[in-house]
């Protein structure tokens, strides 16, 4: 059995401790690729069981700073999952239609059906991150009682934290299991990845000048993330803070978390009735006689 890279089973509420033991970083590219391939195969089998049972869904929420590796996690960790049982949704700036609804609406309508894995690249958590760093965004939402950017005190954000927790508890109770991943890259690593996007021909299309502008708010975002973790991480629905500077290691960690979550559901193929067994026997006999 391949080495496990579960970062921690504890509820994460703190950004200050996110390093890995040195020995876990000494993997060759070939070793890491082989380990990930094994884990992807396990995820594929578990997802097939979940699809067959049809009682649960997995909602994987991936948050990170710009260039944090969200797309890479989605591409690699879920590469072996049947496309019929997995749907990825990336959330960018809200459209006019989305702004006309409550802030959870656009994510709620993209929830996975039972049996499926849904992957959210960013999510409703942007409403307590980018919206908190740039409160002027709230004016576009036409919320009652908010006509300027001076009304957003702690009570406002604490209410949103509670609303999100209640929403996730509702999902959990209805068989949709949220798995919340934060890819925690360093500011220096983000700089390297931005320069790579700027200078490499195959990556230039990914560069967005707005990301450089958002980088100036790094400390403000870290403060918002910290408060978000503390307010919305629970025993049943924790945040997993993943060290993200090493892409190969972060993918292995996320794969192990997905395996752990799916395995905990005690998935089995559905039992068939005596009538169905008889029908299967009759169908088999008919086919054998053709």
Could you write a compact summary of the structure shown?
By secondary structure, this protein is an alpha/beta fold. It contains 11 helices and 5 strands, in the order H-E-H-E-H-H-E-H-H-E-H-H-H-E-H-H. Helix 1 (29-53) runs parallel beside helix 10 (247-263) and helix 2 (70-77) crosses helix 10.
Structure description:
Helix 1 (29-53) packs parallel to helix 10 and helix 2 crosses helix 10. It is built from eleven helices and five strands; from the N terminus they run αβαβααβααβαααβαα. It has helices at 29-53, 70-77, 96-99, 105-108, 130-133, 154-173, 187-199, 209-215, 218-232, 247-263, 274-289, and strands at residues 57-64, 86-90, 117-121, 176-184, 239-243. The model is unreliable at 1-13 and 17-23 (pLDDT under 50). The longest helix is centred in the first third of the chain and has 25 residues, at 29-53. Strands 2-3-1-4-5 form a five-stranded parallel sheet.
Strand order of the largest sheet: 2-3-1-4-5
DSSP helix fraction: 40-55%
Q: Let me know the average pLDDT.
A: 89
Q: In total, how many beta strands?
A: 5
Structural class: alpha/beta
Rg (C-alpha, Å)? 22 Å
Strand content: 5-15%
Order of helices and strands: HEHEHHEHHEHHHEHH
Distance between the termini: 45 Å
**Low-confidence residue ranges:** 1-13, 17-23
Number of helices: 11
Topology:
Layout: H1 29-53, E1 57-64, H2 70-77, E2 86-90, H3 96-99, H4 105-108, E3 117-121, H5 130-133, H6 154-173, E4 176-184, H7 187-199, H8 209-215, H9 218-232, E5 239-243, H10 247-263, H11 274-289
Parallel strand pairs: 1-3, 1-4, 2-3, 4-5
Helix pairs in contact: 1-10, 2-10
């Amino acid at each position: 059995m391949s080495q496990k890279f579960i970062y921690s089973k504890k509820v994460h509420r703190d950004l200050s401790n996110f390093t890995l033991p040195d020995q876990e970083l000494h993997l060759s590219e070939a070793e890491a690729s082989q380990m990930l391939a094994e884990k992807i195969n396990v995820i594929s089998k578990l997802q097939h069981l979940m699809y067959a049972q049809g009682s649960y869904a997995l909602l994987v929420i991936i948050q990170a700073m710009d260039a944090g590796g969200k797309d890479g996690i989605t591409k690699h960790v879920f590469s072996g999952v049947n496309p019929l049982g997995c749907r990825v949704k990336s959330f960018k700036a809200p459209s006019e239609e989305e702004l006309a609804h409550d802030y959870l609406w656009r994510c709620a309508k993209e929830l996975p059906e039972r049996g499926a894995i849904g992957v959210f690249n960013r999510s409703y958590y942007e409403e307590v991150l980018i919206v908190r760093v740039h409160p002027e965004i709230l004016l576009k939402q036409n919320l009652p009682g908010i006509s300027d950017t001076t009304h957003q005190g702690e009570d406002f954000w604490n209410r949103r934290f509670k609303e999100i927790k209640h929403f996730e508890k509702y999902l959990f109770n209805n068989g949709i299991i949220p798995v919340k991943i934060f890819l925690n890259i360093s500011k220096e690593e983000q700089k390297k990845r931005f320069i790579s996007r700027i200078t490499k021909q195959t990556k230039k299309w990914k560069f967005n000048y707005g990301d450089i502008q958002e980088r100036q708010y790094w400390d403000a975002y870290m403060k918002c993330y910290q408060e978000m973790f503390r307010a919305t991480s629970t025993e049943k629905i924790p945040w997993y803070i993943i060290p993200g500077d090493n892409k190969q290691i972060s993918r292995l960690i996320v794969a192990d978390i997905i395996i752990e979550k799916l395995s905990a559901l005690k998935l089995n193929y559905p039992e068939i009735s005596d009538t169905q067994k008889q029908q299967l026997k009759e169908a088999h006999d008919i086919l054998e006689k053709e």
